[in-house]
Amino acid sequence: MLLNKINELSEIYNKIENTQNKNSIWKINDEIFLALINNNYSVIFIIENIPDRKVLTGKNMRIKLLNQIKIEVENLRFIKPGIVIECLNQEKEIKEAFLFFMTTLINNFEVFRQNAYEEFFKIWQLFERNRKRNENNLKGFLGELLIIDLFLKKYNWNISNFYHKNEYNKWDFEFTNKLSLEVKTTSTEERKHDFAFLQLNNNAEIIVASVKLLLHEKGISLYKFAMNLIKEINNFSFSSQLYSFLFLNKINEWDQGIFFDYDLAFNSIIFYLKSSLPKLFENQKNIPNSITNIRYNITLNNLKEEKIEDIIKLINTNIDKERIFNDLKS
């Protein structure tokens, strides 16, 4: 059974709440079950090989690793090891996030079965982090999603698998070891963007995408735009990545974050190459060791613009070269 939306999970929990037997559980399939534990939404995953750790409890979520879970539902009767994930917080935005992640995990269980505990632990850590909204971060995140949306809508190319591959990346998209893409947003006519020195002063070729954002209440919300993209791409890793950002920035169905003019933003995107941008220093060695964390603004308006078709050709050429090089090494 696949769940098409988080509402389906919520409806099942409502049915369990309305049953006379509060200990009843609901079968998703032979390995996944829903239950209410102390009136808390809970999901039971039957997994044969689980780590030794028994219980991980936070203020919002609890994970229990049990050697024996007794299941009695429909025609099933067994006792097996498994993992129970329990939502401890009754706030609606926490419960919505729990429903989203559990829906995603249920639908993609086969993908991460071998590393199930690691995936559950990541979500537990997410739920226990401090959450705070930063509007500049929202604008940057929105710009990055617009680039994914542009490639998808105009060229039917999903570049989400190149998006923030890990937390140590300097750039928003990393296509190869020698080609990356950095997204910058602005709310003014002048395309003046802030750069870190190390983002542009290196041996890699960097593509810069400049996006204009006009914020206003009648536009589309960041929440709606992100959720639409999640549905359209329908990828476990990407969905978790986007929803994690929304969750940490306290963006949800009831508080949807910033609203923006989608058409203006989509049509405003311009690409540049690092080689066309002015340099602060010709050589990084000219900078004294005592000077660090250099940042500066570059105005892109009068610099050479690149056609998106040429950008796509450049990306594909670099990906092909790296693939051939890797094949030769192996």
Keywords, please?
4-stranded mixed sheet; 6-stranded antiparallel sheet; alpha+beta; 330 residues
What does this structure look like?
A six-stranded antiparallel β-sheet has the order 1-2-3-6-5-4. A four-stranded mixed β-sheet has the order 7-8-10-13. The chain has a two-stranded antiparallel sheet with strand order 9-14. The longest helix is centred in the last third of the chain and has 22 residues, at about 310-330. With about 325 residues, it is an alpha+beta fold. The radius of gyration is 23 Å and the shape is elongated. The chain has ten helices and 14 strands. Helices cover about 40% and strands about 25% of the residues. The protein has helices spanning about 5-20, 90-105, 110, 115-130, 135-155, 195-200, 220-235, 235-250, 260-270, 310-330; strands at about 25, 30-35, 40-45, 55, 60-75, 75-85, 175, 180-185, 190-195, 205-210, 215-220, 260, 270-275, 295-300.
